[in-house]
Backbone:
């Protein structure tokens, strides 16, 4: 019996019981639809994060103070724990391959001009940050080279607009934390990236910011390097350099942007997979439906099975026919679920355009394949029951 | 040629062994028209099912055209049923969701005959039984006689050599029954071995020979023309 004939026979049998068949494939359809929707939400979130990261330059790494260790309490044994100092940052400049250093310190401060004032993030950094974070200026220029203290500021677009509603901010002075700062640049509007509003900030030279906030150590050092292949080398060099400066202790943490992206990707991927598996539970319920319907069907079609045996169908053929029915039934559900799920995500992204939704072709295909496999497995018990029927008794059944 | 030697079929039912067939020895020639009679429970249907390779003997030998069948695997028995044996049942056993034509095609479907050829042969078979015009009707739209004729078309469409009929007229009125029996006679004349299980002496008399069964044994073999009634045949049986 050819595969085509098997499928045709199975399809005809299913069409003979439309209502009943529908009841069981709808279960599968719901399962597949929920998996499609859930995974497109998960995948959308993943892409969203990746795109956000993509707004920064590539080949970045970050040094932050402190080290997460599994054993020991930092700072208790072996005296003081070194923080990251501005000197630590400048010492990195001589490492080959490094193209930029942004020693960062940040704090909240009220920035004022005349009667107008606004509480914003003040970010102490260096000129290199401009390239690293892809900051574009609508006027003026970014902070000067070097780490020297200077009473200068670059304003985010929103801050500039709020403080200077009807005029150019360039060359004007603002007050912040007791400092009088000359505005040398205004950044172009950019919006929020990873929850950080780039437009509502003031950039000042890092040394000035340390003074402003009464700090001696940095919050972090951002480093850019020329080639992705240099990552390991640069990380090793920085580790050696800073350890030397910190009396041989590695009391800082190095994370490359690549590693961070990988981690995000992994976490979100795992999350998506986990939630998809949850959707898989509804598939399981659908599978039970297919099993039940087919089990009943075998009982009702016992005579037909006996007849098929008398006409020369082997037990194997009967098994194949019922497995085909189960698979078709389940795949019909899978297909319906796929269409339903895609319709839902399309509708949702049309209604709420900001929702990061990305229907994944791969997941959709996997869902369809899963439904086929689920059907096949659900069909085993009824099919085996059908194949094991004694033909003589089956023919006599009522 | 069908050669049965010491053929037995036993069931265990509720801890009790039932000898449905008890050491049957019989030879049925190719092209013979045979009737099997006997009271209910005498084993005549079991005999038909064993000959039809639908049931397996518990012991003994069944040679079909010289080939031992008793120990064949399910797959080989299925092929024999497809190609050598045609079945006609009292209850017709047509699949209700399929047209007469599709029902006739079933055996060819299981045998892997290509679709176009299936259709042609099924149409031809239906025409031979006078059902050409009713080919696209479902069983529910056919009379009993028409259903049985479609079933006969299905039984012979694979050109088997043996036609087995279990009470083929049991569910039919006289006129339809006669038409069905005439069909069986015609098929016999074309060379088929026809074996009919019946309790109706009128049906049995159309055969050449009658086997009378009781308690799983053949108690009498007689020419069909000598048969008057089952009771009389049994009374004259060797105990």
Residues:
């Amino acid at each position: 019996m050819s595969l085509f004939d098997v499928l045709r026979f199975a399809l005809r049998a299913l069409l003979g019981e439309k209502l009943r068949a529908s009841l069981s494939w709808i279960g599968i359809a719901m399962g597949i639809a929920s998996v499609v929707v859930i995974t497109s939400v998960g995948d959308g979130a993943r892409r969203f994060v990746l795109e956000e990261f993509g707004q920064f330059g590539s080949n970045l790494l970050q040094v932050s103070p402190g080290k997460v260790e599994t054993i020991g309490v930092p700072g208790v044994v072996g005296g003081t724990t070194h923080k990251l100092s501005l000197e630590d940052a400048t010492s990195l400049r001589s490492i080959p391959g490094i193209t930029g250093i942004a020693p960062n310190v940040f704090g909240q401060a009220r920035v004022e001009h005349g009667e107008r004032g606004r509480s914003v993030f003040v970010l102490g950094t260096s000129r290199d940050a401009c390239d690293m974070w892809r900051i574009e200026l609508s006027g003026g220029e970014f902070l000067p080279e070097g780490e020297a203290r200077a009473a200068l500021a670059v304003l985010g677009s929103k801050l500039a607009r709020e403080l200077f509603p009807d005029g150019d901010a360039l060359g004007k002075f603002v007050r912040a934390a007791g400092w009088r700062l000359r505005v040398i640049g205004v950044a172009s509007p950019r919006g929020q990236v990873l929850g950080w509003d780039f437009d509502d900030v003031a950039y000042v030279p890092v040394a000035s910011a340390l003074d402003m906030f009464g700090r001696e150590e940095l919050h972090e050092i951002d480093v850019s390097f020329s080639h992705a292949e240099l990552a390991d080398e640069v990380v090793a060099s920085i580790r050696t350099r800073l350890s030397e400066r910190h009396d041989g202790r590695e009391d800082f943490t190095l994370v490359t942007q690549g590693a961070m992206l990988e981690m995000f990707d992994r976490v979100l991927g795992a999350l998506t997979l986990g939630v998809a598996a949850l959707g898989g539970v509804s598939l399981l319920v659908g599978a039970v439906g297919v099993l039940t319907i087919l089990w009943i069907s075998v009982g009702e079609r016992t005579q037909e099975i006996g007849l098929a045996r008398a006409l020369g169908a082997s037990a194997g053929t009967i098994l194949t026919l019922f497995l085909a029915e189960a698979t078709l039934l389940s795949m019909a559900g899978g297909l319906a679920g796929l269409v339903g799920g895609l319709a839902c995500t399309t509708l949702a992204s049309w209604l709420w355009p900001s929702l990061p939704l990305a229907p994944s072709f791969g997941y959709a295909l996997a869902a369809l394949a899963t439904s086929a496999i689920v059907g096949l497995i659900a069909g085993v018990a009824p099919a085996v029951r059908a194949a094991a029927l004694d033909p003589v008794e089956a023919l006599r059944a009522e | 040629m069908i050669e049965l030697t010491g053929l037995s079929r036993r069931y265990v039912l509720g801890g009790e062994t039932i000898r449905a067939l008890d050491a049957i020895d019989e030879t049925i020639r190719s092209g013979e028209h045979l009737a099997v009679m006997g009271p209910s429970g005498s084993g005549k249907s079991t005999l038909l099912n064993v000959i039809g390779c639908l049931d397996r003997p518990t012991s003994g030998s069944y040679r079909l055209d010289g080939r031992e069948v008793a120990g064949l695997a399910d797959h080989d028995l299925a092929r024999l049923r497809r190609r050598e044996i045609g079945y006609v049942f009292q209850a017709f056993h047509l699949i209700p969701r399929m047209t007469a034509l599709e029902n006739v095609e079933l055996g060819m479907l299981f045998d892997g005959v290509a679709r176009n050829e299936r259709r042609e042969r099924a149409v031809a078979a239906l025409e031979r039984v006078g059902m050409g015009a009713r080919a696209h009707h479902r069983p529910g739209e056919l009379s009993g006689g028409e259903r049985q004729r479609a079933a006969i078309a299905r039984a012979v469409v694979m050109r088997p050599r043996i036609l087995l009929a279990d009470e083929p007229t049991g569910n039919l009125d006289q006129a339809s029954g006669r038409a069905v029996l005439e069909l069986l006679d015609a098929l016999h004349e074309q060379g088929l071995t026809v074996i009919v299980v019946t309790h109706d002496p009128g049906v049995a008399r159309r055969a050449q020979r009658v086997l009378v069964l009781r308690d799983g044994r053949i108690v009498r073999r007689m020419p069909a023309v000598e048969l008057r009634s089952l009771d009389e045949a049994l009374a004259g049986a060797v105990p």
